[in-house]
């Protein structure tokens, strides 16, 4: 039966053409022929377990008590770090500097990276608690911490990001990107793991938010849905290849609020305490304490935004 179906569909020819595409015409395999890839399914489970380790009563076992919680956290963390170490080892193979690293050295490096990551979990949790508190303070609809932890997409996204950012800093950018893309698919919030984000960060609603690789965000910053912190241009070398790692995304200082649909592009600075209105398009820096709406900026002291100072447009020129 299977042979007749193969002949009927012409499978032999299709398989041969796919092989030619895969091996000769349109290769997508890694130049060194790496076949052992990090597992998305494994990483999903690892992140879920790390969430349970940091917030066991919300994401862990339902029957935890004061007496059993530490045992649960320890057991879960031990098994999770073992799984993570294997994924780190696989991901390291894709770093150019480890192309020829012998397997025993790579395994040892993966262990050290995973161990270092584990030691960062308490400080990551502290950052996340500040983010949760910022959501509670910043959203009048928030009833309690449990609602925020279990229901807010912005909190889920920043939880993934803070884990991914730690791995990115430890030299495992591929694995970090896996983690943030999982959050992206779940929430519609796209944060590159390289972005630096300070304490008490809150994304309200969240869908469509984009934060680029070299963005730097200060403390107590609040974003609404569809905000973009993106690049204005992409420098290229002499043969037209894009230059990687160039600082090309905005710097957002402390206590800034950016409302829905705003787009801020390039290596510009949004000064401390500034308020960026909805649907604003910015490619220039904004002074501290300024209030920006479509087509204009009013500079003023914090707490007195828009009530004094010269009326200037988004390019810093006097309005006529």
Automatic annotation (TrEMBL):
Give the keywords, sorted.
Acyltransferase, Amino-acid biosynthesis, Transferase
Q: Cross-referenced SUPFAM superfamilies, in alphabetical order?
A: Trimeric LpxA-like enzymes
GO MF, any single term? serine O-acetyltransferase activity
What's a Pfam family this protein contains?
Hexapep
InterPro entries registered for this protein in UniProt: Hexapep (IPR001451), LbH_SAT (IPR045304), Ser_AcTrfase_N_sf (IPR042122), Serine_acetyltransferase (IPR053376), Trimer_LpxA-like_sf (IPR011004)
Q: Name one GO biological process term.
A: amino acid biosynthetic process
User: Region labeled Disordered — which residues?
Assistant: 293-320
* Oxidoreductase listed as a keyword: no
Tell me where on the tree of life, at the top rank, the source sits.
Answer: Bacteria
User: According to its UniProt record, which reaction does this protein catalyse?
Assistant: L-serine + acetyl-CoA = O-acetyl-L-serine + CoA
Its EC number(s)? 2.3.1.30
The protein here is known as serine O-acetyltransferase
Q: Where is the composition biased (Basic and acidic residues)?
A: 299-320
Q: Which family does it belong to?
A: Belongs to the transferase hexapeptide repeat family.
Q: What class of enzyme is it?
A: transferase
């Amino acid at each position: 039966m299977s042979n007749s179906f193969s002949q009927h569909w012409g499978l032999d020819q299709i398989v041969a053409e796919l092989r030619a595409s895969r091996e000769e015409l349109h290769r997508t395999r890694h130049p060194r022929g790496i076949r052992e890839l990090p597992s998305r399914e494994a990483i999903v489970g690892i992140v879920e377990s790390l969430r349970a380790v940091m917030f066991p009563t919300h994401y862990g076992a339902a029957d935890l008590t004061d007496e059993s919680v530490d045992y649960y956290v320890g057991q879960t963390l031990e098994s999770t770090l073992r799984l993570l170490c294997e994924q780190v080892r696989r991901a390291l193979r894709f770093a150019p500097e480890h192309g020829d690293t012998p397997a025993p050295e790579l395994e040892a490096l993966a262990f050290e990276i995973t161990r270092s990551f584990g030691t960062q979990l308490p400080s990551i949790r502290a950052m996340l608690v500040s983010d949760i508190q910022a959501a509670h303070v910043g959203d009048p609809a928030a009833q309690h911490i449990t609602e925020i932890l279990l229901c807010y997409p912005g909190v889920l996204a920043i939880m993934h990001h803070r884990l991914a950012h730690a791995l990115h800093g430890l030299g495992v950018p591929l694995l970090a990107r896996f983690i943030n893309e999982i959050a992206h698919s779940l929430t519609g919030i796209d944060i590159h793991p390289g972005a630096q984000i300070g304490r008490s960060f809150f994304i309200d609603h969240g869908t469509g938010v984009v934060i680029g690789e070299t963005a730097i965000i200060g403390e107590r910053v609040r974003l609404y849905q569809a905000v973009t912190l993106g690049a204005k241009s992409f420098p290229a070398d002499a043969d037209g290849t894009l230059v990687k790692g160039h600082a090309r995304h905005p710097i957002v200082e402390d206590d800034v609020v950016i409302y829905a649909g705003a787009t801020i592009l390039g290596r510009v600075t949004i000064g401390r305490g500034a308020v960026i209105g909805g649907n604003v398009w910015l490619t220039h820096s904004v002074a501290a304490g300024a209030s920006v709406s479509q087509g204009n900026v009013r500079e003023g002291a914090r707490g007195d935004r828009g009530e004094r100072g010269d009326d200037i447009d988004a390019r810093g020129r006097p309005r006529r």
